[in-house]
Amino acid sequence: MSDRGRKWARQEKRGTVRLHMYNPMILVVDDDDDIRKVLATILDENGYEVDLAKDGAEALRKTNERQYDLVLIDVFLPDISGVELLSRIKETKLGMRKVIMTGNPSLQNAVACLNNGAHAYIMKPIEIDKMLVTIQKQLNSLEKERKTAMEIFARGRLRGRIDTINRESAA
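Now predict its structure.
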């Protein structure tokens, strides 16, 4: 198995910091069994953990049950459109990158996807190398966002401790 998709995760416990490897989790949403299986195999071979959904309802259920790092969504699903799925996921899941896949590209479709929370757009037939680069770029962006959020949170905690110390020393 390749280490391409592996990331370092910080784990803080009682003042100590441990780094450990984890495999980013990707949900593939496509109604075509063959596409789901091929993408799962490719992503797994590149160090990602993969989960599959055959339609929008299954994807919504899975995203409500588990946090994914990235979701690959086909525009045309049997129950709801990929654009509608993007919108519903956007409302409930922050910190997850969303990439649309389509075999029928149009400017109108691309704009609708981007306006509803897509971070990237992949054309079918999928060029595997381009898809892997897109996924890695999206995961790198997600990692930067998470790091920034952790730094802001840590600064807020530190500022709160300083304020407490200042109040105690003034009293």
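The two ends are 60 Å apart (CA to CA).
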